[in-house]
Amino acid sequence: MTFQVDGKVVLITGANRGIGRVILNEAIARGAAKVYAAVRRPESVDELVQQHGDRVVPVALDLSKPETIEAAADTASDVDLVVNNAGVLKNATPLADDVVDCWLYESNINVVGLMRMAKAFAPVLKANGGGAFVQLNSVASMQSFTDFCTYTASKAASYLYTQALRDELSRQETAVVSVHPGPIDTDMAHDAGLQDMTEPPQVVADAIFDALAEGRFHAFPDKMARQTAEAYGGYIDAVVGDASLPAKA
């Protein structure tokens, strides 16, 4: 299934900074009629409202608080595209003293938060003709990194859930995209010590809307992501079921 954002209504979690902010700007640049900026503090998108006017609508949403997700789904009853961008990362090695606490915190946002978003917004998308649901996973969903192993485990779980979500939502004509960035120039990447490996957030925004327009399930935005995709190509094609991989760099 393909999806064009022009003229559509979009909701983006974590839209006030980093990748989410760039996705919001790109959605508007590509003709989105309205973008709900779903953030924990609505006042944090005041600058975006000033920049884009009434095409940006702040909405309170916290992935750890299901009541805010349900309220946002009621508010954004006209949404055509949901981009679940918000996520968290903790630095934790496999035997760290706080490894369990890190896992519980990250999985509650990165996995359970995704489940809550899907359950709340799938009926809205169905009522509006199908639309699309985009999940920001990570290249770390396919490869573990020792220094933040609980994050990679949460993203692996999120990726598997996104695959199931694609199959389930196809029945209501909702396209699903799983996005797998490598290190991107954001606060999260800097906190993880990856600042020397990053690429700009714009590559993620471009990859999302290109994948939607071309009907692809996977989006591999940057060099590291594309290298991982090439290594996993046979598995992705044969097991996950997405033959539309990006061309080799």
From TrEMBL:
Its EC number is 1.1.1.311. It is an enzyme of class 1 (oxidoreductase). Keywords: NADP, Oxidoreductase. InterPro entries: NAD(P)-bd_dom_sf, Sc_DH/Rdtase_CS, SDR_fam. Belongs to the short-chain dehydrogenases/reductases (SDR) family. NCBIfam families: PRK08264.1-6. This is (S)-1-Phenylethanol dehydrogenase. It comes from Crateriforma conspicua. The gene is ped.
